[in-house]
Amino acid sequence: MSFVVIVRGCPGSGKTTAAMETAKVIKGHYISFDALLGEDGIGNPYIVHPSDTGRILNLKALERARPHLEKGTPVVCDWLFDKQAQLDDLKKQLKDFPCHDFLLVTPSPIALKRNAARQHVQHKETVVRLRYNCEQVRGGHRIYTERLTAEAVLGEIIHRIQHPEYGRQMLLDGSLADNQINQPALDEDDLLGISPV
Fold first, then answer.
1. What Rg value do the Cα atoms of the chain yield, rounded?
2. Residue 162 belongs to a domain with what CATH number?
3. Distance (Å, rounded) from C-alpha 39 to C-alpha 21?
4. Residue range 18-43: average pLDDT?
5. Is the pTM of this model over 0.90?
């Protein structure tokens, strides 16, 4: 059966590792939005206006995904998805296929530490801003990675693919809440309404 798995999060959240491992486990095709960004000058603001980058990335990803999905092969992709419109557009384009959406939520200090160890290090301010933006995008299952190993994150993703309704809470209006996986207990800052960024 063909379906799509979207793994998103800020730089250093572990999304690429999780997406690649998920693709292996489900025998799916992996699409890296980072790799697509480097093609045809998409990431170059002198060639593609930054406001068009998300839409163009979606089109390129769909072009790569469609043949696999039509053959019944699952597709796994990873990207920041730090803008609601880009994620909504991708899901709209994929409306014919079930879509599993995961947001890996990682505290800034951990994301910054992981980012510093990467080959292409991003500025601290960029990582913190992208982390905040990613977490503002609605939808999907949130996996709080602070206390999870890469294997545990993979296990949560696979479990959610197999059991999409596991852990969902019913809201007062009868709708289902977004999933919150391994959510840490509220601390004093959360109770005071102070943003973690």
1. 17
2. 3.40.50.300
3. 23
4. 90
5. no
